[in-house]
Each structure stands twice: as structure tokens, then as C-alpha cells.
Please model this.
Amino acid sequence: MLRIFVVCAYVILCFRFGAWRRWREYYSTYLYAVIGDLAYNFLFYDKDLWVYDKLISHTFSDFLVAVAVFPCAITLFLTYYPAKRWKQAVYIVSWAALNTGVEYVSYQFGFILYYHNWNILWSMILYNIAFILVRIHYVKPLLAWPISFALAYTTMLLFDVPLAGLK
Model:
């Protein structure tokens, strides 16, 4: 139920406050985020770090997040992205804090489960990196991909996910 509320809130906020009419401009960045999510689900198939639980299956929940929350969050995030560097840092940290807060509430109510030493601190780090990468992809898409590959590989090493074990 909380997940449905979060999805609806993002959609409503996006259409109320986001520059959703600029969706074509943001489209490749939407796809970048969805591909990142698909890559996580593929690479960590046998060793999930987090799983959505209760009411709706993980797969359907993840799909909802990927096709509704990601585009809406990216639209809102890029619509109000500030020009000054110090404001950019505060803006990114604020977005990461907001999403970490939503995830923390989800965790407290059992809507998300953590495995293999993942925890809310790792999620907070991930959100900060993800929002930085969204901005990098929007401005210089070809730069975002090698950074993303390196970070995915590093995450696999940190959480002991063998490449050889992939199906």
C-alpha cells in the first residue's frame, strides 16, 4: 500500500510541479535509469541486496518504480536543478535524503527487506550517486555509462557477487 502511495505521489507531484512537457528532452535519461534498474536485477539475480515485500511482488513493485517513479523523479529533479555548484550539492543531498527517508519508512513497515549486508546507509550512498549520475547522463550521456559500469562492478566486488555465477 505504501508503495502505491509513493508511486501516486510522484506522479501527482510530477504533473503538478514538473516540466513533464519536456519529457522528450528527458527521455534518454529515463531509459538510462530503467536500464540501470534492469542491470541490478540481472546482475544481482541470485544475490539480491534489497527486495520489495508485502502486498505486491518484488518484480511488479520494481516495474512500477522503474516506469512511474523513475521518470517522475527525474522530471522533478531536472526541472528544478540549480545553476550554482553549492546549491547543486545541497539539492542532490536533499533528494537523496528524501528518498532515503521514504525507504526508511518502507523498511520500518516491512515493505523492503535488506540482504547480504545491505542497509539504509548503503541506500543513502546509492541515492546520492544515482542523482549525480542522472545529472551527468542528462548533460553528458556518454560519460555516465563508464562511470556506471565501474560503480556496478565495484558494488559486485563489495558485496561478493561473482561474475562467473551469472546465468
In short: The beta strands are 50-52, 112-114. The helical segments are 2-17, 23-43, 58-79, 85-108, 120-139, 141-158. The chain has six helices and two strands. The radius of gyration is 16 Å.
